[in-house]
Amino acid sequence: MPLTMCYLIIPPGVLIAKISPAHVEATIFSFSNSVISGCMMFVARMMGILINRTFFDITAENLTDLYKLYIWETCGALFCLLYIRLIPTSEDVALVQKHLESLNLDAKTPT
Fold first, then answer.
1. Are 15 and 28 spatial neighbours (Cβ–Cβ below 8 Å)?
2. H helix intervals, the chain
3. How far apart are CA 88 and CA 94, in angstroms?
4. Most buried in the list 23, 36, 53, 78, measured by CB within 10 Å?
């Protein structure tokens, strides 16, 4: 379970941290972390119930296909690794930050 949680939390968290502007990074990161955690706790369980009832029909008396549900869960966790392709490179982030500095915004990070 801890490895599954790492695969679900880390890729979207890294993506959010990389694309967030510096002056609102904490707000965006905390909000997105709340959404990700909520999805992990609520939506993931509801999807598990739906997948179980649709494909496997595992009950307390019938645990013969339980391993298939665990395989399904592992594959779903590994699906989050597809986010890694969305993470911008350091050069892309530097280019966007340079462009934001040229806009002369009032809400800049204090130096």
1. no
2. 2-19, 25-38, 44-51, 66-79, 90-102
3. 10
4. 36
